[in-house]
Amino acid sequence: MxxxxxxxxxxxxxxxxxxxxxxxxxxxxxxxxxxxxFVPFRTIALWVANxxxxxxxxxxxGNLLLLLPVGLLGPIARxxxxxxxxxxxxSAVLSLTIEVAQLWIPARATDVxxxxxxxxxxxxxxxxxxxxxxxSGRHDALLERD
Length: 146
Known about the structure:
Distance between the termini: 29 Å
Radius of gyration: 17 Å
Structural class: mainly alpha
Largest sheet: none
């Protein structure tokens, strides 16, 4: 018996939670200004320059974790995703969809850096999966086909 349906369900649940979290209107702190960012690495530079401000750390880690399961669980749930390029493409399309939708959601901001971190998180998930497979002796699944 395969674990594929259970993994697909876990991935769907994670993504549903992530979509609800990212697509519902936010409750900004009083006086907080929500700005869109279309300049790559501008927000990331702000986060790196202010590591003592917990909000930025949570934002960066949250964006990395949001689509990490696409890379970690996606190739198990959907074997056609068992390539780096497909994980990156799928996560980029999903993240871009979220960021574009946030243009019209109150107190949400579209940020190209969120997209970059979401895709990096999915790629990290894919790397973790490959390391886990290597440890389990599934060397055939590690062959790069891209």
